[in-house]
């Protein structure tokens, strides 16, 4: 049963046509991209990757290796990735390698991935990560409070994290698989966007649940971004994360962005992929396009952390 506060918000912003969403995203998978346009799309996707390692066994050495790959994914004109994403304790190590390079340092905070810690602790973690050199913070919302209809609490916590970020960009993780319905995903998107700044992100997932980014939940969120922009003029960015592992998938997500938000969102300031193994497949496909020879999966190293 939908909590009264959540129902009121849905009445205000409008519900999601779930059947329509599924029909629309099914069409994205039928698009065919050839030759020059495909190479352009593959390079664009590579430039949008937040190269990620989020394991309990992360070390400064592993982060250094990740940073080197971020700075130089492959020879030739393959672009650098958008960011490296690490735990707060690893931010200072990432800063040694990429600070000032144009590759951003992102850090998951606010008791990622559960978000189940006192707000004071979560805010302190954000402030420390920024102090250590994080350019971007990926936070998780309190899903339990949201589903209970405590929307003012959820929004106030996001607002306080925005303040704690200072000049750092904030990405608000909805954890879409735990929000249960497209209507809830749309409502959570609006709840976050109303206290975010131009250029901040909404994000699908932590990558730590069984179900992560899909074309469906991505579509609901980018339509929310479109509707919010048309109503307010504020450009909010988007980051699908978790489960996007192939170049083919990435191109389908970019088609969705182009057809829903337009070319203004086709850059890494407004759209990102939270991934690690995705980059390897993008590199394989680019090399295949360059040489005409299919590249085996082991051609490029796999630095994925399951994200």
Give the radius of gyration: 19 Å
Under the CATH scheme, which architecture would be assigned? Alpha-Beta Barrel
List unreliable stretches of 5+ residues.
Answer: none
The class by helix and strand makeup works out as alpha/beta
Strand content: 5-15%
Per CATH, what is the topology? Answer: TIM Barrel
- Individual helix count: 13
Return the domain count: 1
Shape: globular
Helix content: 40-55%
Give the beta-strand count.
8
Return the string of H and E elements.
Answer: HHHEHEHEHEHHEHHEHEHEH
Which key features would you list for this structure?
307 residues; alpha/beta; TIM Barrel; 8-stranded parallel β-sheet; 8 strands; DeoC; lyase
Describe the 3D structure:
The chain has 307 residues and is α/β, with parallel strands linked by helices. It contains 13 helices and 8 strands. The chain has an 8-stranded parallel beta sheet. Strand 1, helix 4 (60-71) and strand 2 form a beta-alpha-beta unit. It is globular, with a radius of gyration of 19 Å. It starts with a helix and ends in a 16-residue tail after the last helix. The relative contact order is 0.15. The model has no long low-confidence stretch (mean pLDDT 94).
């Amino acid at each position: 049963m939908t909590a009264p506060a959540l129902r009121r918000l849905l009445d205000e912003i409008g519900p999601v046509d779930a059947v329509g969403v599924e029909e629309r995203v099914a069409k994205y998978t039928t698009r065919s991209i050839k030759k020059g346009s495909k190479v352009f799309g593959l390079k664009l996707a590579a430039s949008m990757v937040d190269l990620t390692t989020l394991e309990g066994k992360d070390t400064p050495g592993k982060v250094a290796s990740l940073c080197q790959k971020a700075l130089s994914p492959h020879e030739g004109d393959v672009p650098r990735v958008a960011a490296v994403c690490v735990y707060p304790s690893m931010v200072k190590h990432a800063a040694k390698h990429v600070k000032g390079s144009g590759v951003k340092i992102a850090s998951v905070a606010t008791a990622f991935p559960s978000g189940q810690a006192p707000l004071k602790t979560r805010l302190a973690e954000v402030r420390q990560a920024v102090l250590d050199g994080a350019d971007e913070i990926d936070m998780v919302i309190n899903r339990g409070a949201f589903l209970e209809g405590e929307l003012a609490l959820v929004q106030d916590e996001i607002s306080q994290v925005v303040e704690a970020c200072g000049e750092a960009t904030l990405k608000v993780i909805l954890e879409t698989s735990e929000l249960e319905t497209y209507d809830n995903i749309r409502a959570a998107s609006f709840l976050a966007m109303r206290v975010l700044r131009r250029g901040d992100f909404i994000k699908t997932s932590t990558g730590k649940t069984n179900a992560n980014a899909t074309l469906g939940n991505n579509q609901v969120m980018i339509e929310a971004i479109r509707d919010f922009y048309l109503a307010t003029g504020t450009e909010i960015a988007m980051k699908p994360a978790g489960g996007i592992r192939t170049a083919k998938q990435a191109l389908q997500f970019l088609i969705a962005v182009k057809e829903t938000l337009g070319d203004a969102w086709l850059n890494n300031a407004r759209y990102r992929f939270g991934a690690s193994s995705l980059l390897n497949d993008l590199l394989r496909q680019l090399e295949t396009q360059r040489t005409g020879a299919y590249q085996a999966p082991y051609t490029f190293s796999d630095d994925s952390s399951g994200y």
